[in-house]
Design a protein that fits this description.
Shape: globular
Number of helices: 12
CATH architecture of the largest domain: 3-Layer(aba) Sandwich
Strand order of the largest sheet: 3-8-7-6-4-5
CATH superfamily of the largest domain: AICAR transformylase, duplication domain
Strand content: 15-25%
Mean pLDDT: 94
Oligomer: single chain
CATH topology of the largest domain: Cytidine Deaminase, domain 2
């Protein structure tokens, strides 16, 4: 197939719409559903991300995409008991690719509502069963087991979007796009992100453990496919906060840091102890948790609200309790797609437990940024490579 006609473009008034190849066949096949224009933008960006992660780390990888940026990305590492609870994972042994997606979606469950899922490996029944329970638009993977495909075909009244991608496909070395009728052309960004990019450690502390290197690679590869400006917080092989598409670097760092704080607060004993009413839908549970731990959490405890959500009225999580809990977060890695222009980014990252930083370097204030990192005994690597994505 050289082209696929779509219902419409980004918006219903943008017709006609299609995806096509100028030469050769499309490297993908729609196995179920009718993906749209934005679906395919998410699918192709997210596929590049998980393919690069698998190549760089050797581990299965997954991503949860919304509006052409990742809400979360993760490696296929085993789930802890706490993770199983906060990500609503099923009991029993789970495949590595299922763990990867559960963790990717668990990074920011609120933003992953209605996501596009990407899997580096063949989608199996474990992954399909979890996807079937979540509000999701579609999935892209290099293949599907028969059982997984049958499960996915029952989702969304049979209309769930399932795309199979040829894992051996290589894009043309030159890519083009049209804006306002004017064609832009550039070389495809085939930059390989690997351990060699982490060798220029500029801080006094140069102790970079292997697991932190993996987290740095995860942050940088995630940023490569995130709308710029962007900053990414990572811990234990998964993103815990992605700040995308901001005009100011510090706003990226704050946004991603606030998301990382929320991810950590979801593990607070009071949150883990919330007792929900029977039969509550997953999105309603996610929204209630977010309200409970946010500045607006009193809303969910208001008369007439909590009764529909919780079995018993929850005890308030105070601002001091939140501050004390966030202060315990540590070992976090922060990546940036362009240099930190001021030390304020490092200070904000430190508040959310940052110990390791990967960024291009090249600011006229690099000395100030390094000094700020040294003040907090951080390890910072200058990669020398900007990772803008638009």
């Amino acid at each position: 197939m050289t082209e696929l006609e779509l219902k419409y473009g980004c918006n219903p008034n943008q017709k006609p719409a299609r995806i096509f190849m100028e030469r050769g066949e499309l490297p993908l096949e729609v196995l179920n559903g009718k993906p749209g224009y934005i679906n395919f933008m998410d699918a192709l960006n997210s596929w590049q991300l998980v393919k690069a992660l698998k190549k760089s780390t050797g581990l299965p990888a997954a991503a949860s995409f919304k509006h052409v940026s990742p809400a979360g990305a993760a490696l296929g590492l085993p789930l802890t008991d706490v993770e199983r609870k906060i990500y609503f994972a099923p009991e029993g042994e789970l495949s590595p690719i299922a763990c990867a997606y559960i963790r990717a979606r668990g990074a920011d469950r609120l933003c992953s509502f209605g996501d596009w899922a990407a899997l580096s490996d063949v989608c199996d029944a474990d992954t399909a069963r979890f996807l079937a329970l979540e509000v999701s638009d579609g999935v892209i993977a290099p293949g599907y087991t028969d059982e997984a495909l049958e499960i996915l075909k029952t989702k969304r009244k049979g209309g769930y979007n399932v795309v199979k991608i040829n894992p051996d496909y290589q894009p043309a070395p030159i890519e083009r796009r049209s804006i306002y009728g004017i064609v832009f052309e550039q070389g495809y960004n085939d930059l390989a992100i690997d351990g060699a990019m982490l060798e220029n450690i500029v801080t006094a502390n140069k102790n970079l453990p292997e697991d932190a290197k993996h987290d740095m690679l995860l942050s940088l590869i995630t940023l490569k496919y995130t709308q710029s400006n962007s900053v990414c917080y990572v811990k234990n092989g998964m993103t815990i906060g992605v700040g995308a598409g901001q005009q100011s670097r510090i706003h990226c760092t704050r946004l991603a840091g606030n998301k990382a704080d929320i991810w950590w607060l979801r593990q607070h004993p009071k949150v883990l102890g919330l007792q929900f009413v029977d039969g509550i839908r997953r999105p309603d549970r996610d929204n209630a948790i977010d309200l409970y731990i946010s500045e607006e959490h009193d809303d969910v405890l208001a008369e007439g609200v909590w009764q529909n959500t919780f079995q018993v009225r929850p005890e308030v999580l105070t601002e001091q309790e939140k501050k004390d809990w966030i202060a315990q977060m540590s070992g976090v890695t922060v990546g940036s797609d362009a240099f930190f222009p001021f030390g304020d980014n490092v200070e904000r990252a430190f508040k959310s437990g940052a110990k390791y930083i990967a960024q291009p370097g090249g600011s006229i204030r690099d000395d100030q940024v390094i000094a700020t990192a040294d003040k907090h005994d951080m390890v910072m690597a200058f990669t020398g490579m900007r990772l803008f994505h638009h």
